Amino acid sequence: MCCLTPFGCALLPSKAIMQSVQKQISDKLRERFLSATRVLVLTGAGVSAESGVPTFRGGGNSAVWKGLPFEVISSAQMVERDLPAVWEWFDYRRDLLQALQPNPAHTEIAAWQDHFPVFTLVTQNIDGLHQKAGSRDVIELHGSIWRARCVGCHARYEILSHGTRPDECPGCGDSLRPDVVLFGEMLPALAFEQAAAAAANCDLCFVIGTSGIVYPAAGLPAIARASGALVCEVNPESTTLSDQCDEVLTGKAGEVLPIFTEVRSPGAEVRSQK
Ligand code: APR
Q: For the whole model, what pTM was predicted?
């Protein structure tokens, strides 16, 4: 059963789910959460699943657009071959995203930026839901669906929700493309360097809602663990990263993460369904 909340379509964890998650949180994790000073969070598509954003690989089938597999329509080759088709695909996804709201996982993560002395949020998601939940300085490893980039001068332009995007670069007049890392493309170097530096210098690392299949993002938890951080995975399924984690919290991010509201502010009421 789900109930509407101030988050619009997000679900509050039932009491039963809360109790099962609370049982999963070990004393070691609770202590590290309370003593940690430098925290890294890596998120993937799963953190937005409860907001209505389909994941790429959960549930066995991957997305297809007008007969083209997701990996093809979202590829560098396609930008060369048919940029209007690429834009049509991203315009369609952006339209879907317009109405979607952050869920309790996004909200709890946003609260952590003011709780931990040093906090870094790295996401593989291009949906902008972390920022919509109030997260600042999000390291977007795979870019953002809310930006366009010039293929000539590489200038970047915000695409406002419900807004129209410019057809060509206002600066140099060249074509614009989605400012998203497409298949066959390198990650923005600075973003990954910042993420790797944060991983090598943290004492607690959360890996939330990622299958851990796509590198180099999936390599960050191992960097964190090698530098002595406690690594905790949050996912309803086991992943290729589960064995590399010290702690695994099995469940949906929107139902697991709100539990930490109570951990970080003892006595705080963690709202749940009656
Ligand atoms: N809460 C937490 N995790 C969830 C939830 C949920 N509610 N629902 C699903 N998951 C998990 C799935 O079990 C799966 O492990 O989220 C993961 C989603 O995996 P992918 O679809 O592979 O997404 P991600 O890991 O982010 O993919 C990485 O691949 O396709 C590219 O660029 C794309 O950024 C993406 C990258």
A: 0.91
